[in-house]
Amino acid sequence: MSNAFFREEKKFMEGARARWKEFKYVGGVVMQFLKGFRGLHFIGPCVTVFGSARFKEDHPYYELARKVSAEIGKLGFAIMTGGGPGIMEAANRGAKDVGALSVGCNILLPHEQKHNPYLDRFVTMEYFFVRKELLRKYSFAFVVLPGGFGTLDEFFETLTLIQTGKIQRFPIVVMGVGFHKEIIAHVQRMMEEETISPEDMDLLLFTDSVDEVVAHIRKHAEGSPSIKLEPPRKAAWLLGERKLKRA
């Protein structure tokens, strides 16, 4: 792959290097964050939907993602995804179905992931950890649908950050109960063995009911003083910033 950021990240993970090379890497990370801020800073309160890129339009999980995203969009939230196909496309499509803002934070991969056609705005990141931080930064809640390693990574890393107080507590919903039944059982086992606390589960909901998801998010939105529920910030034209508009 010819992308300079991709090459730089691989070399960074090889171990200690010359100081100027490490400084160069830090500069690239700063550039990535600035790119994300310029593209996503004006979306207002949003809910992020995670899930596999591999499910097609005729799959039940695709339809579930589209439906739940539409209903969340009706609450006034923008819908954010990883910007790609599959569940991500379905969620963005659901937002478009009801006139809600539809946003993507894409990732550049060796086998390039293209953005889906249902986005009002998207940015493409080269570093996974920058992308994950941006998804968390602008999200009031997460909805996790069936997916692979990437989906589980985003799910458990966010839970860990909430558990350890590194980020604000916000609702996380897991849909596809049958798909996640072993994970649900393992979470229950961790509670029984006291490796997690009951309060760690307060904001976590496992359900396949769209109505339950909407009620759960609405309940926490109405009772939350979170800064993430403030109106969108204004774009500054002097800085070349553009207000986010529906396509």
From TrEMBL:
One GO MF term: AMP nucleosidase activity
Keyword Transcription regulation: no
One Gene Ontology CC term in the entry: cytosol
Coiled coil: none
Leading EC class: hydrolase
Matches recorded under InterPro entries: LOG, LOG_fam, LOG_family_nucleotidases
Biological processes, Gene Ontology terms: cytokinin biosynthetic process
Signal peptide: none
Catalytic activity: AMP + H2O = D-ribose 5-phosphate + adenine
Family of the protein in this entry: Belongs to the LOG family.
NCBIfam families the record matches: Rossman fold protein, TIGR00730 family
PANTHER family named among the record's database cross-references: CYTOKININ RIBOSIDE 5'-MONOPHOSPHATE PHOSPHORIBOHYDROLASE, LYSINE DECARBOXYLASE-LIKE PROTEIN
Name under which the protein is recorded: Cytokinin riboside 5'-monophosphate phosphoribohydrolase
Species for this entry: Parapedobacter luteus
